[in-house]
Design a protein that fits this description.
- The protein folds into two domains: about 150 residues, no CATH class; about 130 residues, LytTr DNA-binding domain (OB fold (Dihydrolipoamide Acetyltransferase, E2P), Beta Barrel), CATH 2.40.50.
- About 45% of the residues lie in helices and about 20% in strands.
- A hairpin with a 2-residue loop joins strand 3 and strand 4.
- Helix 4 packs antiparallel against helix 6.
- The longest helix is centred in the middle third of the chain and has 39 residues.
- The chain is elongated, with a radius of gyration of 25 Å.
Length: about 290
């Protein structure tokens, strides 16, 4: 594979699975795959007289260790890195490689529990546990990451293309009265016309709110959360939370494309591409078709 193709592949958006329900699904798959592979294939040479417990329990312990490490590593990474919406293949590979290294170290540290071997605490067995983890883990990762990337991309792109007939034409005009928006700072409260709303983006403790002012877009910054703004605009079904950090006026969407993370929305009146997370695709499709 040429360097430019490798770079393009590594920079492609990729879903972040290491939080919430997705994390538990991944943890369950890791446990299941590790147990089945270890128990039925016995991939590495083991000397039975060294076993402190039955081989079934050894496989159980070896399968539980990666799950514990995955949860701890995910929590640590999530606390240190907030921009998971920018997740891509390169970051996924980095995350997984560190995960494999931690598994190898973890399997080394539990050797005294399951093996009666005077050399358990040796550099050789540390190397062996890390090597074995990378041998098996890299094989699975090299197959599953590209397969999942292609599956998610084509699935989301197909759904995005199906929405093109529902795009709102530029010559359709609507009128709505202004609404009062309450912020966290009383002097910052403001009025806005929902039809002039383009999108809003969370920026730390503030919201960047983009509104049409004549033929140009105007940005105002308010002390407000996505949840608070969404609640005050809930009676306008064309304004939707598409991502944890974004509210979007669906009438202003010009084009829709799909990628492995969900959709990307090109806004008509502003040179900005906004995300729709994979969790919001179903609700987005339903609302967009009712415009």
């Amino acid at each position: 594979m040429k360097p430019d193709k490798v770079s393009k592949f590594l920079s492609q958006p990729y879903p972040f699975y290491y939080e919430g329900r997705d994390l538990w699904v991944i943890a369950g798959l890791v446990f299941f795959m590790t147990f089945i592979f270890t128990y039925f294939f016995e991939p590495f040479i083991v000397y039975e007289p060294e076993h402190r417990v039955n081989y079934f329990y050894i496989c159980l312990i070896h399968s539980t260790t990666p799950v514990v490490i995955l949860c701890l590593w995910s929590l640590f990474y999530k606390l240190k890195n907030k921009a998971t919406e920018k997740w891509n293949v390169k970051r996924e590979i980095f995350f997984v490689m560190i995960f494999f290294l931690l598994i190898g170290i973890g399997q080394f540290l539990i050797r005294d529990i399951i093996y009666d071997n005077p050399d358990n605490w040796s550099w050789y067995y540390l190397y062996e546990e890390i090597r074995n983890t990378f041998l098996v883990g890299t094989l699975f990762a090299a197959i599953l990451i590209p397969l999942n990337l292609n599956y998610q991309f084509y699935k989301n792109q197909k759904q995005a293309l199906a929405l093109f007939p529902f795009l709102v034409s530029d010559d359709v005009t609507t009128h709505s009265s202004s609404v009062f928006i309450k912020t966290q700072v009383k002097n910052d409260d403001f009025y806005m016309v929902p039809d002039d709303f383009i999108f809003a983006r969370s920026d730390g403790n503030y919201m960047e709110v983009y509104l049409m002012n004549g033929n140009t877009a105007e940005k105002i910054v308010k002390r407000l959360t996505v949840k608070e703004l969404e609640a005050q605009l809930c009676k306008y079904p064309f304004i939707m939370k598409t991502h944890r950090s974004y509210l979007v006026n669906l009438k202003g969407v010009g084009t829709i494309t799909g990628n492995a993370q969900g959709y990307r929305l090109k806004i008509k009146n502003y040179n900005e591409t906004l995300p729709v997370s994979r969790y919001m695709i179903s609700e987005f499709n339903k609302r967009f078709q009712l415009l």
